[in-house]
Each structure stands twice: as C-alpha cells, then as structure tokens.
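Hi R.,

Here's the chain you asked about this morning:
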Amino acid sequence: MEKNIFCKRQTTMSTFLIFFFLMIVGVSQNQVIGQNGNWTAPASADKMKNPYKGIEKSTLAGKQLYGQFCAICHGKKGKGDGVAGMALKPRPSNFTKDIVQKQTDGAIYWKMTEGKAPMAAYKETLTEKQRWQLVNFIRSLD
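And the predicted structure, written out as tokens:
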C-alpha cells in the first residue's frame, strides 16, 4: 500500500514538472515570435527618482530580495545564467552589462514593476520600497 502511494505521488510530481516545463517553453516561444528588439521603458520612467539611492542598508536588503526572487533566472551574480533562465527566450538580462547599468534607476524599477513575459511583474508581489532596494542591489553588480 505504501509503495502505491509513493508511486502515485511520484507520477503526480512528474506530471506537474512536465506541464510546468511545457508552459515555460510555450511562453518562451511566443515571446521570441513577438520580440521587437530591446525592451525600453517609457520616458516617464527615466524621470523617476530613487528615494533609497546610496543607502547601504537598502542595498543589503535588495541583496536578500534578489536571492529570493531574481537569482533563479538572472543568476547569483546577475549574469543572466540562472537555472530557470536557461529555458527562457529571450534569456534573462545580464545585469552586469552596460545595456542594463546605463539605464536609469527609474527604467530598471519600471521594468521589474511592469514585467514583460517571461519576466514577471512585481507590482503586486513586492512593495515600492523593495523594488527600489532591488534596483540598488542591481547597481552594485559588476
């Protein structure tokens, strides 16, 4: 009896993982077809000011959040090489590159707030303060 329960759980878990993988691949394929070059934040985002800029405690809090929410796709060092990001198209951004680091804090904040498949939107998941903390941590990556 115990062996049957184990087999059923294993089969259910396998089915879930296969479904999850196919869902990611499906989103990824649709994103590639609809991809029109670089992802640009609106000009209004560039005018946003980071109220926590230069505050070390904010950057440290951002590091904690990054480990929880971002590293799985963007990698531990922000190079876009996270385990979950390998199957995504477009691939996750490399935060250490100039194309990211030259963006304004407001543009980075706006992108993580709004999201764009396969990038999740964090408007409902993270507070404004937490999103700014993440911006501060992303700025510390090189």
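Residues 6 and 54 are 52 Å apart (CA to CA).

Let me know if you need anything else.
M.
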